[in-house]
Design goal:
Length: 211
C-alpha cells in the first residue's frame, strides 16, 4: 500500500499533478492526439538509469517526442538473436522496425557508476553484486580500446563505451539496412554532470566535443 504521507511519494504526486495540469489541461490536444493516434517519436535515446541524466528532462521533451530505453551505463549489447531476455535489443527493434525512428542517440554521462564498476572489474576488484558485473561486462571491449593502462578517471571509458555501443548497434542487420538506405543516423553523446555540457562524438575524428 502506497503511503502518500511519505515525503518521497508526496514529491512524486506533486510532480504528477503539475504534469497533468500542463499536459492534460493546458495541452490536452497533444495528449489526446497521442492517445488516439499512437506515438510517432523520431528519436530513440539509449541512456543510463542514473537519476542525474534523464533524457526527457535533459532535452525538455514533450510526451511522444523521444522513445527511451535506460539501463545501467547506457549500454547496447551485441546482436544476439537467441531466446535470452534481451530487453534493450527488444526496445531497439521496436524503435527501428516499427516506430521507424530517424535517429538513435547513445547518451552516456560523467561519473557513471556502471562504468566505474566496469573499471573496477578490469582492475581485478571482486564484484559483490549479482547482476551489475555481468551486465557492464558488455562494455569490456571498450576498455581494450584504451589498453591495459586505465587510470582512476573513468571519463575515457565512458566515452569509449559510447563508441562501443554504436559499434554494437551496427551489428543489428535490420538497423544497418535502414542506415544504408540513408534514413537512420546514429549519434554518440556524453553529458557532463559537473558542467551541464553536452558533448557529441565526431565519427570522422573519433573525438567528442561540446555541442
Ligand atoms: Zn550511468
Amino acid at each position: 500500500m502506497t503511503k502518500v504521507d511519505d515525503p518521497a511519494i508526496r514529491a512524486l504526486l506533486a510532480g504528477y499533478r503539475s504534469y497533468k495540469a500542463l499536459f492534460y489541461d493546458k495541452r490536452g490536444d497533444l495528449t489526446r492526439r497521442l492517445a488516439s493516434e499512437g506515438q510517432q517519436p523520431n528519436v530513440l535515446v539509449i541512456a543510463c538509469s542514473d537519476s542525474r541524466a534523464d533524457p526527457a528532462m535533459l532535452f525538455n521533451a514533450d510526451p511522444g517526442e523521444i522513445f527511451v530505453v535506460r539501463n545501467v551505463a547506457a549500454l547496447v549489447p551485441p546482436y544476439e538473436p537467441d531466446d535470452g531476455f534481451h530487453g534493450v535489443s527488444a526496445a531497439i527493434e521496436f524503435a527501428v522496425r516499427d516506430l521507424m525512428v530517424s535517429h538513435i542517440i547513445v547518451l552516456g554521462h560523467s561519473r557513471c557508476g556502471g562504468i566505474a564498476a566496469l573499471n573496477e572489474m578490469v582492475h581485478g576488484e571482486p564484484q559483490e553484486r549479482e547482476f551489475i558485473g555481468p551486465w557492464v561486462n558488455v562494455a569490456r571491449e571498450a576498455c581494450a580500446l584504451h589498453g591495459a593502462d586505465l587510470n582512476e578517471d573513468t571519463t575515457s571509458i565512458e566515452l569509449a563505451s559510447i563508441k562501443n555501443s554504436i559499434k554494437n548497434l551496427k551489428g543489428f542487420p535490420w538497423l544497418m539496412d535502414r542506415m544504408n538506405a540513408g534514413d537512420l543516423s546514429l549519434h554518440g553523446w556524453w553529458f557532463d554532470l559537473d558542467e551541464g555540457a553536452l558533448h557529441a562524438h565526431d565519427a570522422k575524428t573519433g573525438q567528442f566535443s561540446p555541442i
